[in-house]
Every structure is written in C-alpha cells, then in structure tokens.
UniProtKB/TrEMBL annotation:
Gene3D superfamilies: 3.40.50.360. Residues 6-136 form the NADPH-dependent FMN reductase-like domain. It comes from Flavobacterium crocinum. Transmembrane segments: none annotated. It comes from the Bacteria. This is FMN reductase. One of its GO terms (cellular component) is cytosol. GO terms for molecular function: FMN binding; oxidoreductase activity. Pfam families: FMN_red.
C-alpha cells in the first residue's frame, strides 16, 4: 500500500492572475518529488477583512475553509511580492486571521519573496511567520529580486542563478519531510 502523499498548501501573495509568484509556486509544484501533492491557494481576495470581533468560535466560512486547508496540510509554501515596501494587504490579512490559532505552530513552511526589490516584505514575512511559530530556516526561505526578468510568461525560469536557487530551495524544503 503506497504511503499517502505529503500535502503542501501553496499560497500566492499576489491577487494578480498568472503573477510571477503564482508561476514560481507552479514551478516548485512541478519540480517537487512525486511524494508531494501541492494545492495552490489563489483566493486571498475572497477572504473578508480581518476583524477581531468576527474572530470568534464561529468565524466567517471563508476563514474556516482557509484555516482548515492550512491545518490539514503537512507544510505551507508562501510566495509573495512586495507592494510599497511591505507585504500585500491581502496576504497580511490572511495571516492575521491565523494569529489567534495555532495552525502554523511547528508547521514546516517555505517562504519566498519574489519582487522588484522585496527586502522589506521578506523581512516582514519572516517576522510574521516567526510570530506564528512556523518552522523554517535559512535554507527554506528565499528572496528573488528583479523577478520579472527571471521568469517568462510560461513560468520557465530564464536566469540560471535563480533556477539554481530554486532547485536548492526545493531540495531543502523536501528534506524537512523526507
């Protein structure tokens, strides 16, 4: 009897269709070991604005569904752009809905910021995920600067250094599970 596949929830921080971040997650999904099953979550725009008054025993259904996807996964990948030297509001909103839970506690995560610069957003992403007690290290986080010149519309990595960095990231992420 084959072992169940390792379930990975991949969250793109961009709400743009076919964004560079989505293409990177798709690239990773296609290059992970066959023992992994990746679901890319693209519905950040559909999550309600965080409101502590709604973060009760019965939060909105979209939040219950989002939290369940995280909880039922073995690991989470996040790939996000940087907007105005910060995380996109939609991604920060989604993560705020997780603060009152323990769904990220000791959860293996891979964190990628892929943007023009990305340094500030990457720093914020690492801080937020550390606060949520997610498990990651220097080998399972990556900053890709100038991403638009490194990946084409078909999702192919066209810059060798970035391809090598992603291959190392993938190998290191897999090693946390295998």
């Amino acid at each position: 009897m084959p072992l169940p596949k390792i379930k990975i929830l991949a969250i793109t921080g961009s709400t743009r269709n076919n964004s560079s971040n989505f293409r990177i997650l798709n690239y990773i999904s296609n290059h992970l070991n066959n023992e992994f099953n990746v679901e890319i979550f693209e519905n950040l725009a559909e999550l309600p604005h965080f409101n502590p008054d709604l973060d009760t025993e019965n939060p909105p259904q979209a939040i219950i569904s989002f939290r369940n996807k995280i909880e039922q996964s073995d690991g989470v990948l996040i790939c996000t752009p940087e907007y105005v030297f910060s995380l996109p509001g939609s991604l920060k909103n989604a993560l705020e809905w997780c603060v009152s839970t323990t769904i990220f506690s000791n959860k293996e995560v891979g964190l990628i910021t892929a943007s023009a610069s990305g340094e500030m957003a990457h720093e914020q992403l690492l801080l937020i995920m550390k606060t949520l007690e997610a498990k990651f290290d220097d080998n399972t986080q990556l900053l890709i600067q100038g991403v638009r010149g490194k990946i084409n519309a078909e999702g192919e990595i066209i810059e060798e250094e970035t391809k090598e960095a992603l291959q190392n990231f993938i190998k290191n992420f897999e090693n946390h599970f295998l």
